[in-house]
Write a structure and sequence with these properties.
Two copies of one chain form a homodimer. The first copy, chain A, is α+β, with helices and mostly antiparallel strands and 706 residues long. Chain A has 14 helices and 39 strands. In chain A, the strands form seven sheets. In chain A, strands 1, 2, 8, 9, 10, 11, 14, 15, 17, 18, 22 and 23 form a twelve-stranded antiparallel sheet that branches. In chain A, strands 29-28-27-26-25-24-30 form a seven-stranded parallel sheet. In chain A, strands 31-32-33-38-35-36-39 form a seven-stranded mixed sheet.
């Protein structure tokens, strides 16, 4: 629904400076004396980005960023509302001022490049556009020269720029202290990591300035182009783009007309504003999938945590190269994806109202799948002998449960592409509506990286092929999202960060981790974090290993870490031990009409309330870092005059993530729009709430919250 | 049928030297004082290969070729006969002496490597085998150290070692004069060429020693490993293996157990013996395709030469990026693959007894297909609007003609692999039994080469997928063959060399070219050379351009250049102008019971007689280089007591490839086993013969040859 658009003003060649603004955000464009494009950005009169250079150099034209002249500048206004297929809100406004600067190389061959800026209330985006032209058809990008010149030594929440992984813990500290090598060196829990630049960081990069500005730098609509990483100049706090290269060191092979992804800068003096931003999503193209009724958010259980904790194995056998007399694998007796075990999970999901069941380790290949840079690893249509795919499909269908497919590629994208047609047809045949993909390993084609152009296009090809088969995709170990789920709403979730699984197989995630993720990883899209671990300690044979959380915090994550695909990640028996707490996971929604960020500070705390789509039910999550604190939640978002029941899941008074993580208290109270909750959060703790319309009997049986 | 095998002798660790021999060929193995393996080869008492080192080094083990000790040596004898699905003969004997040397690294981790030698009557082959072992599972080959130390500055028939092309003219000259850069520099008619080594040459490398030995060095059974090229040491005439690298400079990613391809050395004092050799074929594995009745040799016409000569275009439109109002391409009016034009070719094939019709330029993508290193180029299931695939399929079926599919990839192997399933299903749907593949362009995955390990495996994947769809493959611009058609008899032909097409779009092939090809390119397998051009001059708008041949020689090539897939390459109207000469193309067989190499000297002349499979009909081809000469053909291969008719197609007495190429004479004579033909070959000329059983009337109407 387009409300207002295209008040076009075009200026001629003379003005070498121009600006656009919206609300408190102002962006200035200027061409300098060397004919180089640049911009600066301001928020409420404060400089966010000092004059910073722009430009792209090509193989064979290493000066394309210089001696440019302005052919024209055009300003337009745009305002529309659109409805996402699923999301944190059911209605999104896309409202910006746009400045298009058409540039031309002054010397021969007079190549053309446009830079398009969009300014929103909460930030700006810009991209390079190569229009169709005689002097530029096929070309290779050797360098992108985009700069973000900051005003000071801001506090950064950063992970190393890595061509292949984003599964790092965040480091919080001044830009001047960034040392990607130091972090990478000790990150031995990450299987494949390639960190080329000691001063390189990844986006979304979250920053906080001394004067209290929250700044987030990322990109939107990453397709057909490598991911952007940032090099930090520690002297002048300038960030400059670094594109992930291919095997030959080239960055991108392009064909005009082509538009790069948007470079995004979000800014506010309130951290919560950044979590509410829809700018990255708005900078993506509308859905290319027209009929979307088959795309369904869901909660799911899975044969998964038992692998992570060593209870069972992905593999059917212990050795790939030892076989019985008939050439069959020799079962190890500990295989998780057996028909019988899978049925238990289906029973559990059906009994719990979880829509889906994921099964990993169901197909041939797991005996010898990792670390050998193999071309051919898995067969995506060949179940292990103890996984009866037909029997399981029928059993799940009989219980109203959807099976979720698992396609681990081990990084061999070429092999996956060869099998896509047959793999997705197989899913259709057995009624799997969703696939979890995985890329654990060095990429094949060898020399390519997870975040390079070839793989970016691979992920998009997977989404396209999946859409053609009405399959939704949850990509693991892929590039971090950039809002592409607007264009491909079947891109229902992604990992692309350090998930809860690290608590199982490594020293885990610190308590602050989930307070940073929404400001970093989740800026680009939902994360399949796999919350809901109830057995916080004792699941591992490694001494001292535990999840760095309280149990109540695990519940809160279903609200604070947005995803339309949420796992109940723990074992059914661990949920059975706490049916009262598990009730929250059964209740919590995964699709929303509205979202209120009540309180948020990266690295410290987050409190979010969300209204379930199409229902008068709100869910609230509040989490803290390693410090205990009190979350204040004014329920002013509730309907006036309506009575509600609050189901409150909170840390027990003596709870503590280290010493007493599983201590929780559940209470039920009457609340209304005037209620202000004061919830104690333990160190590493949290709180979850269901707020539903009160029934008549509730009014008599329940007490008012105070 | 295994006649005799496995007379096993095993010796212990002590003997550091051992030898095997068969007929005139002797091979010695020796381990030197540094524990390095080596071998030498002798023919009839003459040294062919002086003591030459062997070995393979690995990434992380750059001394794997040294400090080896012998665990055991084993000698076996093998003798079998087998019947190829198609071939130059209908029965092949595979008879060799084998020496297996089991070697172990003396230092930790004590890795194992075997070297297996096989000695045949006409040469030897050897390969490296990595047995299954604890100390070596996945590994990367950094260098293969195989040497071939020659005894002198032999005359070589060579083309430059090139990672991506083998479409060079041959240079004849001493090894000491090899200059690959010089040749490559002027080979501007080859689109993609990457020549890394000034002293590098390709195999099959044909050599002739001063003492009259003919030596051919190549490889057999190239799968899962890069192609081998050779570096020439001009000082001591030693050749050393150079493997084609991947994008990262690695040579091969392997998994034990693995056997490398065989390195082959054929040797004789008669050049003809090399053309008769079946050693390369014998070193390949037996067919993996069990039911082969669908694999059929054939002659075919095609919408092809009219593209090469500029009469029509592959593309439907002139521009890819200009469309009409409905978004359709704008036809250029010169598109060759129109339904109407294709029907003309089908009519022509049906009338001429040609089994197939190839159509290039039938599918979307040709407007912009070459030279831009694109990931996505062609759609292999999307015909141009003027190519009615159903109508054409039905029309061809009605005439008993098979359509031959064309899949040009432009080098984007990843894109082809994504489409293989659908492309071959499409062929099955429309009844295409055969596909011509093409790889004109730089390879995608970018950084890979036509002859590197990834592409070698790609070509094999294509053969496997094609076999699963009962499709035969004629690969163009792929790696040169190594006898793999024994294992995959659906690999019915290949280009992999400089074909007749170069006469259309470049300065062409010199008259000697086809006298060298059987000693080089064809050692590994049949070539789709596309002979049969009747209009020798005047087909091109380029002044002076012509085929470097007489018309009679074009006929002879159907016999001298073996292929089970032979094209009648010229335009139907050019054949219509010479129905008497065209009769030979209609008659000539493409599958054989027997082959007699009557005379052969690389670079000078070749005369071959072949008996059509299952019939008492012989065909003879005789060709010469730029010198005129007389071919003497004793018909002693005919059945005694039987009367035959000879249809003789020869150069007219005043024929000459330059001044009078289309002058030919046809005569019909009675011949028998005692007949000795003396046929004048013009400069650049040749002669073709059909020798069939005489009918009663022939005995009265025809005269005896004299």
């Amino acid at each position: 629904m387009l409300l207002f658009a295209a008040a076009i003003q075009t200026s001629g060649q003379d003005s070498k400076e121009t600006e656009i603004s919206k609300g408190k955000v102002k962006l200035k464009f200027a061409l300098d004396e060397q004919g180089r494009a640049g911009y600066s950005l301001y928020f409420d009169g404060k400089t966010v980005i000092k004059h910073s250079l722009l430009g792209i150099n090509l193989a064979g034209d290493s000066a394309f960023n210089r001696q440019l002249s302005i052919l024209a500048t055009t300003k337009t206004t745009f305002d529309e509302q659109w409805k996402p297929v699923w999301g944190e809100v059911s209605n999104i406004r896309n409202n910006y001022e746009q400045l298009t600067v058409r540039l031309k190389q002054q010397h021969s061959p007079g190549r053309l490049i446009n830079i398009v800026f969009r300014v929103f209330n909460d930030g700006a985006g810009f991209r390079y556009e190569f229009p169709k032209q005689a002097g530029l058809k096929y070309f290779t990008v050797s360098e992108e020269l985009t700069e973000f010149r900051l005003t000071g030594d801001h506090t950064a929440f950063w992970i190393p720029a890595d061509y292949d992984s984003n599964e790092y813990k965040y480091t919080t500290g001044p830009l001047s202290k960034v040392d990607a090598f130091e972090v990478s060196k000790i990150a031995t829990d990450i299987a494949v990591r390639v960190v080329p630049d000691q001063q390189g960081v990844q986006t979304p990069l979250m920053l906080k300035s001394a004067e209290g500005l929250y700044i987030n730098i990322h990109e939107a609509a990453l397709t057909g182009y490598p991911a952007m990483q940032l090099h930090v100049d520690k002297n002048d706090f300038s960030l400059s783009a670094r594109l992930v290269p291919d095997a030959l060191g080239n960055k991108a092979y392009l064909y005009a007309p082509f538009n790069t992804p948007w470079r995004t800068i979000l800014v506010s003096d309130k951290a919560a504003d950044l979590l509410n931003s829809k700018t990255i999503l708005n900078l993506n193209e509308p859905s290319v999938i027209k009929e979307t009724s088959w795309i369904k958010p869901m909660k799911f259980a899975g044969v998964w945590w038992e692998y992570q904790t060593g209870k069972s194995t992905w593999s059917f056998a212990d050795r790939a190269d030892t076989t019985d007399q008939q050439g069959g694998l020799i079962p190890n007796g500990r295989h998780g994806a057996s028909t019988a075990n899978v049925k238990k999970y289906i029973d559990f999901a059906a009994a719990s109202g979880l829509q889906g069941v994921l099964v990993e380790g169901w197909n041939y290949g797991w005996e010898d799948w990792f670390g050998n840079w193999k071309e051919n690893v898995f067969d995506f249509t060949k179940p292990y002998p103890d996984f009866n795919v037909r029997e399981i499909a029928d059993y799940a269908a009989g219980k109203g449960v959807k099976m979720i497919m698992h396609n681990e590629t081990s990084g061999s994208a070429t092999d996956y592409e060869r099998q896509l047609d047959t793999a997705y047809k197989f899913m259709n045949t057995y009624g799997y509506p969703s696939v979890k993909t995985g890329y654990v390993g060095k990429i094949v084609p060898r020399g390519e990286h997870h975040d390079g152009q070839w793989m970016i296009s691979h992920y998009e090809r997977v989404l396209q092929k999946a859409a053609a088969h009405q399959v939704t995709v949850d990509a693991h170990e892929a590039v971090r999202p950039t809002g592409l789920h607007r264009t491909y709403p079947n891109f229902i979730a992604s990992e692309a960060g350090r998930g809860n699984e690290y608590n199982a197989f490594s020293d885990g995630n610190p308590p602050e981790h989930e307070t940073i993720l929404p400001f970093t990883r989740l800026m680009g899209g939902p994360m399949d974090y796999t919350p809901g671990i109830f057995r916080i300690k004792g699941y591992s044979t490694v001494a001292g290993r535990q999840v760095h959380t309280t149990m109540a915090k695990q519940l809160a994550l279903y609200v604070t870490l947005y995803s339309p695909l949420q796992m109940a990640a723990d074992l059914p028996e661990n949920y059975a031990a706490h049916p009262d707490a598990f009730q929250f996971i059964k209740d919590v929604a995964v699709d929303w009409d509205d979202t209120k960020v009540i309180a948020a500070e990266p690295g410290d705390y987050i409190t979010i309330a969300r209204k379930a789509k199409g229902r008068h039910v709100w869910f609230v999550g509040a989490i803290t870092d390693e410090h205990k604190r009190t979350a204040t939640v004014a329920l002013n978002f509730l309907d006036k005059g309506r009575k509600y029941v609050l189901d409150l899941y909170r840390d027990a008074d003596d709870a503590d993530w280290q010493s007493n993580p599983e201590a929780y208290v559940i209470g039920h109270y009457l609340v209304d729009v005037a209620t202000v909750l004061k919830i104690k959060l333990a160190a590493g703790g949290g709180s979850a709430m269901t707020i539903r319309e009160a029934l008549q009997q509730d009014l008599t049986t329940l007490k008012k919250y105070k």
